[in-house]
Design brief:
Number of strands: 0
Distance between the termini: 19 Å
Oligomer: single chain
Shape: flat
Strand content: under 5%
Amino acid sequence: MREAADLLERAYAEDPDLVYQYNRVLALEGLKDFDESLRVLNIYADPMRQDSRQRFTDVDAIKTRLQESV
């Protein structure tokens, strides 16, 4: 799963679609790297909330879950 998180970070560098960072947050959470997952989410949460396609409607729930896990 660590490799997946790294690949998602590289994919975002080549194609800045927020879906890569969203999935990276989830991958890091799956690794129980809650601090890093929350750090990444804090960087991208506002743009995710403003996504015109509303793909990230659970950002606040994920943030709450991560904060409780830290």
